Amino acid sequence: MLTLDPIQTVACGGVFLIVGYAIRARVPLLLRFSIPAPVIGGLLVALALLVCRQWDITPVRFDTTFKQPLMIAFFTGIGFNASTSLLKVGGRQIVLFLGLATALAVVQNVVGMALATVFGLPPLFGVITGSVTLAGGPATGLAFAPLFTAAGVQGAPSVALANAMAGIVFASVIGAPLGTMLIERLRLRTPRSLDLADGVPAAPQAVPLAVTAPVVSAEEQAYAGLRSFVVILLAMGIGAWISGGLGALGLTLPSYIGAMLVGALIRNVDDRFGWFGLSPRSIDVIGSAALSLFLVVALMDLHLWDLAGLATPLLVILGAQSIVVMAFCCWPLLRLMGRDYDAAVMASGFVGFMLGTTANAVAVMSSLTERFGPAPRAFLVAPIVGAFLIDFTNAIVITVFLNGWS
């Protein structure tokens, strides 16, 4: 049996990450459903190991030591995106939309726990098939999986992946038809004037990059990337102390929570005083790279055989969760968000990230606006909430349920 050390494991993950991108580019169905490339590459390895297991063969063993720091680096980047100045741009709409998403995350967990009990499964099985993997997506599911395993949920990583992937497919299938139904049934149309209330700007006109962006030398770009990398490491280091302190108080929390909070604090201090000179673009690049490598490495080491016998509960719970999300979008979300065209487009995006990922949300909203016209308010509010704000509030929701029923 071949054993790969931590560096070799990440290198192998990088190879299959590129393979995942290549496969997705050549299979239109994968693009249509917004299946992440790391998931494609990682699942190839997991499926191959599943086949080998049927023959009692274990061809390779991975050392996933670097999985944890990669995961923490990604969520630290999420923390750096949590700028209070963004909340001021969308005003009341973003706060209200976030509140609705957080409320539904609670509902998802209650529904999941109730149905898990019906099937004779632990209540926390319902939580991991609730907001952990639906509002949270694959990354949050795999990040929390070790805590659920420790709390007694057998095969938690495999359950998290299966539910998150099925949620992505359901979100892609449901989101656009629901938005279309709302728009046509209520006869909603894009407003003639795109000047928006609550301080939300209209979509900007395209301006040549050479006019708007100053020329930045390669050395300046490299320094900005290095500075961002060092600040992320600093946040991770300080965050480790905070997470350790919270754990000493008896709280069951994901290991990234301290670093994410420190990242948010540094971002808002920098917005106010400019002490760190952060480069949001560099931080996004580092965070995206860390997420991709984390996902592919985590999936390569996934034990898909742990899912044996859980297909029926997973499908029933996900079907019920989908009905709940659709009902929530039709009422109260549509009504509270204004019951207009933008609200209908936002509802479709809401389905996207509350069952799948932000990529699903953007994809389904784009399909609607291509047909019915622009919805600038929807494209401001939904991605901001779905991309990172819900990760903060959902982590709190999950932690409450995890500590209450573990």
Automatic annotation (TrEMBL):
* Compartments in which it is found: Cell inner membrane
- Family stated for the protein in its record: Belongs to the glutamate:Na(+) symporter (ESS) (TC 2.A.27) family.
- Key word Cell inner membrane present in the record? yes
Question: Briefly, what is this protein's role?
Answer: Catalyzes the sodium-dependent transport of glutamate.
Protein's organism: Rhodanobacter umsongensis
UniProt main location, coarse: membrane
Q: Where are the transmembrane segments?
A: 6-23, 30-50, 70-87, 94-119, 125-148, 160-183, 229-262, 283-304, 310-331, 343-366, 378-402
Q: Specify the protein's topology with respect to the membrane.
A: Multi-pass membrane protein
By its UniProt entry, which Pfam families does this protein fall under? Glt_symporter
What is the official name of this protein in its record? Answer: Sodium/glutamate symporter
Supply the alphabetized keyword list: Amino-acid transport, Cell inner membrane, Cell membrane, Ion transport, Membrane, Sodium, Sodium transport, Symport, Transmembrane, Transmembrane helix, Transport
